[in-house]
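Re: beginner question about structure tokens

> Can someone show what the tokenized structure looks like for a real chain? I only ever see the sequence side.

Sure, here's an example I had lying around. Input first:
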Amino acid sequence: MKSQTDNIDIKESKLRRTRKLLDILLCDRTTGKNIIWGTDSYEKYGKSFAQKKQITPSFVTGRYGKLIQPRAAKSLDEQRQRTKNKAEVFTSLKVVDKINKNGEAFGDRQPPSKKNWQGYVRELRLEITCGEAPFIASRYNPMANTGKLIKLERRVGFLDRKLRVVSRYCDDKKEWLFWAIEAFKASYGYEWQGDNVLLARENLLYTLIDYYEAKFVQTPSTKVREEFAEIISWNIFQMDGLKYVIPMSCHPEKHETQGRLEIFVNTDNEVAEETCFGCKQELPFKHNGVYVTIMDWVNGKEVRFVDVASRQHYAGTKRT
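And the corresponding structure tokens:
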């Protein structure tokens, strides 16, 4: 029997059947490995589900095919636990709509014109601690358990707005795809918990499919979906937003003093190690963890997010 939330729950098993889509969506572009769980919500299933373990296709498909679900599909008890333990909260779509309107040069009263719509599509936007990415693409209401998808014209994410503009001004399929790619390249988000990173990436991929199907009455090819998935896997990334590193990648360290290893001993005569200097001093450039890299699509090169943030490159894109 089809459950009430099946419409919004994207099946990883289905993604895995489409060549390498699931592999792409699980990739951590910084490490070259997979994103990690980043939460203890799944540790009851075994050691492979611990916080620092990578999420592999076999752990989200088959017998685990329904393990990762959107918040709206989770039980109320699990929702409360994630709010309590991980401070996971979602913003109402009404507020999302208002914030996104205030954060851009154009609102519903002044839609981009033929003269300026391309600049609007390329405008860089970032959702911090994005969760399932409702500020980017609002396919469903994460605060309701209706399981219903929102109609395209009523979606309020900033990528939704960009794609509606692309569909308004582009009728040729190649031109539409070109500007849709530009819209995706300009849309970023980061999140700590790995299950949310995957859900956010899936939501963006299916947002592409939704708008493409609405415009051309057909599903985009596997090649097209993989191309967009590559962009999404770069732009929706896993990060500790306070340290700009892969979550939990900072580690204790030892120091050498005058050629000798400096050892710290506690009161029980046990060897102790000094914590990460950046963590201890709260210095963003001094962490020993793995600094997250993102893609600068304009210049075609990888950059550290900490360097981008320090230049306030995304000023005006913050979410409150």
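Each token stands for a local structural state, so reading them left to right follows the chain. The CA atoms of residues 48 and 54 lie 8 Å apart.
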